[in-house]
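Notes from the 1:1 (GR / supervisor)

We went over the backlog. Supervisor wanted to see one worked example end to end before approving the batch request, so GR pasted a single chain during the call. The sequence is below; no edits were made to it. Supervisor asked that the structure be written out right there so they could see what the output format looks like.
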Amino acid sequence: MPTNGFNKEALKLQFGLINHESRYLTAEAFGFKVNASASSMKKKQIWTLEQDDRDPQVVLLRSHLGRYLSSDNDGKITGGAEKPDSGCRFFIVPQSDGRWALQSEPYLRYFGGSADYLSCFAQVIGEPELWAVHLALHPQASLLSIARKRYAHLSASEEEMSVDSNIPWGVHSLVTLVYVEGKYSLKTCDSRFLSNDGKLVKENIPTTCFTLGLKAGKLAFKDCDGKYLTPMGPTGTLRSGRCSKPGKDELFDLEESHPQVVFQAANKRFVSVKQGVSISANQDVETDMETFQMEIDRESKKTMFRTNGGSYWTLVTHGEIQSTATEVQPNTMFDIEWRGQRVALKASNGKYVCTKKNGQLSAVSDSVGDDELFLMKLINRPMLILRGESGFVCHHKTSNTLDSNRSVYDIFTLLFNDGAYHIKSQCPLGRYVAPCVGGKFWYVSASGAVCSDGEQPEDFYLEFLEHGRVAIKTNGGKYVRGDQGGILTGDGGSADATSLWEY
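Structure output shown during the call:
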């Protein structure tokens, strides 16, 4: 993990396992039975990888029910173990094509089969014992090199990805994983793909497709020639090296990519830490000094703002806001009030943050006027991927509407417009969608459905309400939600589970 402790934990590896018949391993609630019958990845098909504390080569597979996959001496498979016992312990045996074989540690037999006929009794690995891995975590993240303890980012020349950043800061540090037909591509913030020679290209071609490997809970990316991505040279140029087996240099973690924003005050200047510890609206350009990371507390839903130096905004004496806090504490927490195209911030003293005549931010106001309103712009999501409680948002195959319950995702372009956002469709990768919607905009139809073929953009508003979740409000004041039929609609009355989206 990074020595600076900036992002504290890697994302838990969650995935679907696809058998030789293109069916997903499924954990049923009734009797904790396990089958391989599902054609797509929903909640019941998601498994979480856990490593054994004593032996890092041993893995445990936990279902959405919180129970563990287990095998007995006769090869019988169940998914009901409340606590991991010896039968829950498996080895991952990676294959040259990127698929996995799962071998029982105590019995040394291999797990496989189809439909309702699954067992862990095969003595050798055949097609029925091979499983493809489909990651279930949100595909936009920060990529950390285990060996270098540095993050990948689009280089200053914008000609390569470099692994030499101490912190994942700004839009250039966003990496999007694109999944097509069992392989993964790495997409930069400007919509180019990383090729195995280190170059960035506009098209997703064989040299940009990698199979996913796993070693000691870390990820490795194997190219079409059987070689692995690794940082090379003083700047850590990300490209395939010579190794056909992953060592520490070829291993990566995916870490959560928090939203990063810039604020513009009523004086039309950007809020900055350039002048020192004081937070002031006194800059005319956006740089790292004017960018702040939003970290939302899971329990209180209050927000902390972190600077690129790792410190937090905090309330000090006389209501002044400074960047002197090194740890989260009550004075570093703020409430955000969402007011259409602008936001208001309330500090822990119950007062609103205002911009003084000298640009200094202070929490001294009892009500909200022009000086208490800020334009807040999200800068590290030029590409938007949304996942709700039922699945990903994706173009419908035969109409201009959007599905909200798919196991595959489409990538949308997010365009800022004076406190609001326009959402534009991109051409889906590897799938046919009719009619073609590339370059068209989202809008809400008269029936309430969100459509993706608008010629003119329509305003939407982003509200960051929970850790890792955003609500999207329409111009009519309703929330975008996934309805029971799996269609994306713009008629939600409140921000509930159906209208909160991983982004």
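Supervisor's comment: The CA atoms of residues 147 and 304 lie 30 Å apart.
Batch request approved.
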